[in-house]
Design a protein that fits this description.
The structure holds 2 protein chains of 2 kinds.
Chain A lengths: L1 H9 L8 H32 L8 H12 L9 H34 L1 H16 L6 H8 L3 H25 L3 H9 L4 H36 L7 H10 L3 H29 L12
Chain B lengths: L1 E10 L6 E11 L4 E5 L6 H8 L7 E6 L2 E2 L7 E4 L3 H4 L6 H6 L9 H14 L15 H14 L4 E5 L7 H18 L2 E6 L2 H7 L2 E5 L4 E8 L10 H4 L1 H15 L10 H4 L1
Parallel strand pairs in B: 2-10, 3-8, 3-9, 6-7, 7-8
Antiparallel strand pairs in B: 1-2, 1-4, 4-5, 9-10
Helix pairs in contact in B: 4-5, 7-9
The chains are: A mainly alpha, B alpha/beta.
The complex binds adenosine-5'-diphosphate and magnesium ion.
The site of adenosine-5'-diphosphate has 12 residues of chain B, from strand 2 and helix 1.
Chain lengths: 285, 265
């Protein structure tokens, strides 16, 4: 999934002058993305049919299970797995991520703007960012219990660092002349934050957000594998323990799909925000 | 309007001290276009930055409309040499021009009118929605000028604004300055190291020496108000004036550069 995503964004040209050739390019991109994937799936299917193993079920079986587990019923009724696993997982990762984005950007802007503040907090940041977040699970369990708070906060903590460090970097990368121009026109501090600091740092911030997004999914899954009673991570472990290998694989495939969709969403947002850049086709993490 | 008296500025202290501006005195009156000409590194930017209130000089008196300049005064705008750095690349052409006007409390209609009037004046109609990276250097500098025009400053400071555009564009932009000066009856202080440019644009030229810098002389430019890139520059009076400015920069007639007594003895 990550592979197809990066191919699609790295090669996307800017609006072409000739609609004819643009259309052809679009088709060849489309083909590259999906036909290659379809061929790989077909090979996987053939391999599992040729060498049957309970640990490696046929992809068709996996997708059958996935549809049964998560697709809503005929009258739109959500399945228990959707309600108990997918939605709680998404809720945790999105909430944790939202907290992280808000706090990390605010703190990053403050640190990026003030050398003095940076000198005070730098050692703490250097230490905390070096700790692999999963290693903190025991501490978070003691501090916040086994409920959702622990998972949300773990996700928030773990995803904050790339955003924080990139925000600091981004804010520092803004040329002094931009601020001098603002000074000459007597532009207020709030206005500077909104119209100069944040947009100026946006390319870096968004790169950090992208890194953090995959980190968030990883932390979501890991945190759901300990002391949990719901979530995609929980369901994968449960399935594996109960020898429900198609379900286990279905969970893994679902994580891939969710990651892909979130990444695509971020790419769309990024393209809107960074339309002012010479090349708004950006690398994906 | 703008008065500078015995301005001096020294960068650094002790052994590393560099006397950038030794003694600068001149004034700008309303409606004038004064150009300051001097060799590179003589402290023109330093001088302009002190006048804009972006830095405090180490000595001398600066007043704008009778008030001492301690920070950026209201009613002053500046066009920097580095247009790329002073535009906001994430704002469209129109938003760049509009941004500084927001705090002025204008009505929506007034705001729109000012923005479009300025863009018309610099010849950028049709480019409102472009981002700076989609424009040539000359066009970017036009955006910076439009931004300053829309702001309606009482005085406009320009720091070698055309030093990094090609010759043809430069002439167009010089004429643009003359035309907006007339149209908006502006007071402009224009810094340049280009002697022709200083004479072509100005009502008065302030000639600076090499560092340590002082005002060699202030020269009135009695050329007609309707200047033309070709005709004005063929005018014998223009040629005489530019020759004089060049000579003054090269051989400043001042007590300050007489040979030190010790060397004579
Ligand atoms: N921030 C600074 N610190 C120390 N020296 C400076 C600084 N800015 C400029 N100078 C020095 O002051 C002199 C005048 O610089 P500047 O005002 O930029 O000249 P100009 O604009 O005429 O080319 C130069 O020798 C320059 O190196
Ligand atoms: Mg300069």
């Amino acid at each position: 999934m990550a592979l197809t995503a990066s191919i699609s964004t790295a090669n996307r040209p800017r609006a072409s002058r000739e609609p004819q050739s643009a259309r052809r390019q679009w088709w060849s991109r489309f083909a590259l993305r999906w036909i290659v994937l379809a061929v790989l799936l077909a090979l996987w299917q053939l391999a599992t049919m040729a060498f049957p193993s309970p640990f490696f079920p046929q992809p068709i079986r996996i997708f059958e299970r996935a549809a049964l587990l998560w697709l809503p019923g005929p009258n739109g009724v959500l399945t228990p797995s959707m309600l108990n696993d997918v939605l709680p997982s998404m809720g945790r990762v999105l909430l944790g991520f939202a907290i992280s984005v808000v706090l990390a950007i605010s703190l990053g802007v403050a640190i990026g703007l003030s050398r003095k503040f940076a000198d005070y907090v730098d050692p703490i940041i250097q230490f905390l960012r070096a700790v692999p977040p999963p290693a903190l699970i025991p501490i978070f369990l003691v501090l916040f219990g086994t409920g959702d708070e622990m998972r949300v906060l773990l996700i928030a903590f773990g995803t904050a660092w790339p955003i924080l460090l990139n925000t600091i970097d981004g804010v520092r990368s803004i040329e002094e002349l931009k601020y001098e121009t603002a000074t000459v026109f007597r532009i207020s501090f709030v206005s500077r934050l909104k119209r100069i600091v944040l947009p100026g740092a946006a390319p870096k911030i968004l790169a950090g957000v992208r890194t953090s997004l995959s980190l968030g999914l990883i932390l979501m899954v890991i945190s759901e594998m300990v002391a949990a009673s719901s979530g995609i991570g929980f369901s994968i472990v449960q399935a594996q323990r109960g020898f429900g290998f198609p379900d286990m694989w279905a969970g893994i495939v679902l994580l891939g799909i969710i990651g892909f969709l979130l990444n695509t969403l971020l790419t769309v947002i990024e393209r809107r925000i960074l339309a002012w850049q010479r090349s708004s086709g950006r690398e994906t993490a | 309007m703008l008065n500078i008296e015995h301005l001096t500025h020294t960068y650094g202290t002790g052994a590393k001290a560099h006397l950038a501006l030794k003694d600068i005195t001149f004034a700008v009156e309303p409606g004038e276009l004064v150009s300051i000409v001097g060799p590179s590194g003589c402290g023109k930017t330093t001088l302009l930055r002190t006048m804009a209130g972006l830095m405090r000089p180490t000595g001398g008196d600066l007043t704008f409309l009778g008030n001492e300049i301690t920070s950026v005064p209201e009613g002053l705008a500046m066009v920097f040499q580095d247009y790329r750095g002073s535009l906001f690349p994430w704002l469209s052409v129109e938003s760049n021009v509009r941004f500084p006007l927001k705090r002025l409390g204008l009505s929506k209609a007034d705001l729109d009118a000012r923005v479009s009037e300025s863009l018309v004046a610099v010849g950028l109609t049709g480019f409102e929605d472009r981002f700076p990276f989609q424009l040539s250097g000359g066009m970017q500098q036009r955006v910076a000028i439009a931004r300053a025009l829309a702001y309606r400053p009482k005085i406009l400071l320009m720091d070698e604004p055309f030093a990094s555009v090609d010759a043809q564009t430069r002439e167009d932009l010089e004429d643009l300055v003359l035309s907006v000066k007339k149209k908006f009856n502006m007071t402009i202080l224009f810094v340049t190291h280009d002697i022709d440019e200083s004479v072509y644009l100005a009502d008065r030229v302030v000639v600076l020496s090499k560092p340590p810098t002082f005002v060699v002389t202030t020269l009135d430019i009695p050329l007609s108000d309707n200047r033309d890139q070709i005709e004005t520059k063929e005018d014998p009076e223009f040629i005489r004036l530019r020759g004089e400015v060049a000579r003054l920069i090269r051989h400043p007639k001042s007590d300050d550069v007489t040979i030190p007594v010790a060397d004579v003895a």
